[in-house]
Amino acid sequence: MDDHTLARRLADAARDLLLRLRTDRTDLHGADLGREGDRLAHGQLAAALAHHRPDDTVLSEEGGPVPTDRRTGRLWIVDPLDGTREYCDRSRGDWAVHVALADGGTLVAGAVALSSGHTHATDAPTPLPPPAHRARPRVVVSRSHRPALVDALADVLDVDLVPLGSAGVKTAAVCTGDADAYVHAGGQYEWDSAAPVAVAAAAGAHTSRIDGSPLVYATPDSGIPDLLVCRPELASTLLTALATARTRP
């Protein structure tokens, strides 16, 4: 199967495993549930990639470090469970599985499997819906690691800030039209955003750093300092507002 189909199938399978674990292991609670979910989903993804793409390299949140010289080719970037805090709370659904492929630092395939059962993927991207024409753009932001920049943005531009869990869930909200933008600053890792950025770009969304520069993956430290995912018609307005917000004391 091609890389796009594989990304979707692996993300779906890991999501389904996590749903079963959450339902069946009633003896696991809180952090113990999250640790077991991370462990099992990582093991399944790593084994499947070793089988289907034995010559490729895997960078996973739950895996070991990847030498720099192994990052220059085909690198699968996976987050077996994005939104672990939300997963640990059985009343919440804002968590996801991320599977992406970068080649030479550029994202070429990806899938975000949501807990709802829906998956956004590059094999069959759904174009962004028409603009909602809200009076105030809806901007989704981190629920547990809310950066000061988003509050500064709200001082500069009249926006609604909506906290959510997983980066995949926040990006999916932009793809479905439930939100207009996703802004993050203060640091993430590549596995947090690779798959979400891949599927958002495939759907026609704007994706960049908050200064408008391109997002580059397969970096030596696996870090992504900040990002903006938004409807393309809002990109210029948001980038200008973010530039002003960054100068605020």
Automatic annotation (TrEMBL):
It is an enzyme of class 3 (hydrolase). It catalyses: a myo-inositol phosphate + H2O = myo-inositol + phosphate. Coiled coil: none annotated. It holds the Pfam family Inositol_P. It comes from Saccharothrix yanglingensis. This is inositol-phosphate phosphatase. Its EC number is 3.1.3.25. InterPro entries: CysQ/Inositol_MonoPase (IPR050725), Inositol_monophosphatase-like (IPR000760), Inositol_monophosphatase_CS (IPR020550).
